[in-house]
Write a structure and sequence with these properties.
Number of helices: 10
CATH superfamily of the largest domain: HUPs
Largest sheet: 5 strands, parallel
Strand order of the largest sheet: 5-4-1-6-7
Distance between the termini: 18 Å
Radius of gyration: 20 Å
Helix content: 40-55%
CATH topology of the largest domain: Rossmann fold
CATH class of the largest domain: Alpha Beta
Number of domains: 2
Order of helices and strands: HHHHEEEHEHEHEHEHH
Oligomer: single chain
Shape: globular
Structural class: alpha/beta
Number of strands: 7
């Protein structure tokens, strides 16, 4: 139930969907004054949430600071959270998406000797059973082996559907193998805040390793700062999802 509710809530956390609903409301209302107010509200929502300057500042405030490991820093397990793949449902072929920096950084950390083992956690987050046959962790396992990571150094949780299940299932795997810390948590800079709290609540103390940064603190040219941007809308989608997700997890005792 919690899983279905969280997926439904995501629809109402996207500013683009707010625009669609406002425009639909304006088209359906018969009151001219109300229609004008709704259209003005639509314009304000569009201008605020498509503004790249505002989205950059909000993203910079939310994203975790970079972590720079020392040469001697070593962790028993690097926990890689999925959420970077999609699948062709006709062929079963997996593909990397935007958050694949998580994968790149995990391979890099292993090659540099910072992590001894890699725990890939995440199955398929689709609510449709017909789409759940392909598991991200299985695909990433194959990719890690192709990158030269020994199979015995890879642990798999292909059942988790959300961050809460990532934490609970990772704890079970680590406890079953009696692995001792420290553990490194590898995920996107926007996601690390919620992930840390969830993993701590699950009883797994981890050190954060944020990656996949979406905002860089570079100055804007004037026209770039005021030109509406689809990327800005996408940034707000992520920020609202993460902040609402953290709040929901806290209210339900999962973080």
């Amino acid at each position: 139930m919690f899983f279905i509710l969280s997926k439904t809530l995501n629809f109402f956390l996207q500013p683009f969907n707010w625009l669609l609903l406002l425009i639909l409301w304006a088209l359906l209302t018969r009151n001219p004054a109300r229609r004008n107010r709704i259209l003005i509200a639509s314009l304000l929502v569009f201008l605020v949430f498509s503004n790249p300057f505002l989205s950059q500042k909000a993203m910079l405030a939310w994203e975790a600071d970079e972590v720079h490991l020392k040469t001697e820093d070593q962790f028993e397990v690097g926990i890689l959270l999925t959420g970077m793949c999609s699948f062709n449902l006709n062929t079963g072929q997996g593909y990397f998406k935007g958050a694949s920096d998580r994968f790149i950084q995990t391979v890099r950390l292993y090659k540099l000797g910072h992590i001894k083992k890699i725990l890939v956690t995440g199955g398929n987050s689709s609510i449709w059973k017909s789409r759940q046959q392909y598991k991200e962790a299985d695909f990433l396992h194959e990719q890690l082996v192709q990158m030269g990571i020994p199979d015995e150094a890879i642990l798999i949780d292909n059942q988790s559907r959300n961050t809460h299940e990532n934490g609970v299932n990772s704890k079970k795997i680590i406890d079953s193998l009696q692995l001792k810390g420290p553990f490194l948590l590898i995920t996107s800079a926007t996601h690390i805040r919620r992930s840390l709290e969830v993993f701590n609540k699950a009883g797994l103390q981890t050190t954060p390793y944020p990656c996949h940064y979406r905002a860089v603190d570079n100055p804007f040219l004037f026209w770039s700062a005021i030109t509406p941007s689809l990327e800005a809308l996408e940034h707000w989608n992520t920020l609202l999802k993460e902040s609402a997700g953290l709040l929901m997890y806290k209210l339900t005792g999962k973080a």
